[in-house]
Specification:
Elements lengths: L29 H22 L2 H28 L4 H24 L8 H22 L9 H22 L4 H31 L4
Amino acid sequence: MAIATDELTLDPLPAKLFCQSMAKNPLLLVPNLITIARILAIIPIAILVMDGDLILRLIALILFVLAAASDWLDGYLARAWDQYSPLGRMLDPIADKLLVGIMIAVLAWDGSLSGWDMIPVCAILFREFFISGLREFLGNTKIVLPVSQLAKWKTTVQLIALSIVLFERIVPGFGLLSDVLLWLAGALTLWTGWDYLRASWPHLSGDAR
C-alpha cells in the first residue's frame, strides 16, 4: 500500500486562519503589527543601553537583534499572505530609520562610537534624512522611487554594524570589525543615496518628459 508523503516547507500558516477583521484593518495585519512592535522596541532598547550595565546591554543587544530580524519577517509574511498595505509601505522604512538613527544617537552618547566613527555615522544620517525628504518631494509629483536590492543590503549592514558595536562593549576585541562594518555601511549608504539622486535628477531639474 502506497503511503502519501508531503514535502516539508517553510510556508507560514495560511492567513485565513486569522479573523476576518484583520484583513480589513491595516493596523491589525500581522506584518504591520510586527513593524509597529519594532518601532516600540526602540524605547526599551535605548533605555537599557543608556543605563550602562553590561547585563542590561546584553538584553538590549538581544532585543536589537530580534527587532532587526523582524524587518525580514514582516516582509516575508506580507509577501506570503499577500498582506500589503499603504500603511505597511510607510511604516517599514520609518521603523528601520528609527532603529538605526536612535541606536546611533545612544551609542554616540555613551561613548561607544569614536570620533572617526562619526564620519560614516554622519554619512548614514545625512543620506537617510535627505532621501526621505526626496521621496516626500517626489510623492507630490506622483513619482515613486522603489527600494533597490542594494538599499536592502545597506540596511542589513547598518544593523549588523550597530549590533557589533553593542557587542564590543560586552566582549572587547571586536573594535576593528565594528569599524570596518560601519565604514562599509557608510559607503553603501552613500552609494544608494547617489543612485536615488541620479534616478530622480530629471524630475528635480525639470528635464523629465
